[in-house]
Amino acid sequence: MLRRFSANFAVFSIFMDLLIIPIMLRLVIAIRPLLNPLPFITPIQEITNLPVIIYILFSVLWVSIFATFSVYDGRRNIRVADEFASLTQGSIVAAISMAGILYFTFREVSRALFIIFVVSAFLAMILWRSAARFYFRTVREGLAKPQRVLIAGAGLVGHDMQAKLLEHKDLNLHFIGFLDDDAEKRQKEPELILGSLAEARTVIENHQVDDLVIALPLRAYDRTNHLVADLFDLPVKVWVIPDYFSIALHQAVVEDFASIPMLDLRAPALDEYQRMLKRGFDIIMTILLLIPFLPAMIVIGLLVLLIDGWPILFFQKRVGENGRMFNFIKFRTMRRDAELLKKEAEFLDEEGNLIHKRPDDPRITPLGKFLRHFSLDELPQFFNILAGNMSLVGPRPELPELVEKYQPWQRQRFAVPQGLTGWWQIHGRSDKPMHLHTEDDLYYVNHYSIWLDIEICVKTLWIVMRGKGAY
Q1: What is the tens place of the pLDDT at every residue in 388-436?
Q2: CB 438: neighbour CB atoms within 10 A?
Q3: For the chain, which domains are there?
Q4: Can you tell me the distance from the alpha carbon of 183 to that of 444, in angstroms, rounded to the nearest whole number?
Q5: Taking the model in full, what pTM does it have?
Q6: How far is CA 77 from the centre of its chain?
Q7: d(CA 419, CA 397)
Q8: What does the DSSP 8-state code read for residue 379?
Q9: CA–CA separation, 4 vs 75, rounded Å?
């Protein structure tokens, strides 16, 4: 029987796509002359004849690109939004590739025919996948035996795992209960905690458990070893959630390091495709923005030099992605003896937090106030972006001395490239001290998309023109 997240279903998906692509191409070729009466389509008199090699090439190319975009990886496409996003991205790349093939081979193929083929094939692949999801969620869900899951450890990690199981009901996983040695917990949650770790065999056999998830803290490492050893002869699958996840920068993934599977506690929040897209967006937009802003930067540099002397630029060590240090560039907006006046600018807010910026900062020069009001002092950071130290959009690079005071959860903001503008900047800027509002940055980290970057860039333009919250 075909299972949703299995190698068999992946192979079935590949065969379905290999079948749909040539069928849709042949169908569109057959109906193309019928579209001649439409005003926006150039009439053709005969049916276009394409050699068999084109049908084969299109099918293999499209499926290969889908494989590259992990369309056939069921575990990475549990949510319908994830699967259809991968499908859309792969289809766009496939369409561009096929258009290139036709350009160098059969240029007589009409544009309308090609566009209709790409759209119809894409919709057909969306349609059969939607039908498969409906089938597995309704028909098969009633027929398939649910996997019964037991969790060892009723702490924070264990309860988080329970919540994940309840959230993903489409995976057909049924939460049975917990195992825990804490007598107090067992008294508080007797209906959830089915026994101690020593009673694991009995609980697993009585409740016909299929999967055991071990979510024990590091201090219980020995108990984990004994528990796994005790169950070696039972037909139960054992999963381990390492307690290291609590200290991961953003997420932890298993990767091979010197041919040994290890946990990467600083795995980036962006996958390779997202990183490539973001970097391409940064380079293209920065080059386009430098065209109008470069003359303005020259004028600003001359004004700083004439009014307040050398140096024109201000370099400062900032913390970048994954905690890497880099030289952050700005136009100098403070007096040359600003460090001596640092204590005069700092103050404690009502909650005792140290604030290092204020509207009447005595260190800022009159020209510097104007530059900061319209964020013109930030323009040299375009060169940080081109150098790869920063991104156009992301959490703002922070001062090392402030990062030292961060709570562990706040350090997750360094899981993505630090940016010239970001979610924090369009929701408060200097009105909300960055180091006290890292939740804004974590929102960006957890919801990143290229469309969010575009939205932030557009909103930043309006905020900068208003000069809101900048000092």
Answers
A1: 899 999 998 988 888 888 877 788 888 889 999 988 877 755 555 555 5
A2: 21
A3: 7-140 (no CATH), 145-247 (3.40.50.720), 272-466 (no CATH)
A4: 41
A5: 0.52
A6: 14
A7: 7
A8: T
A9: 10
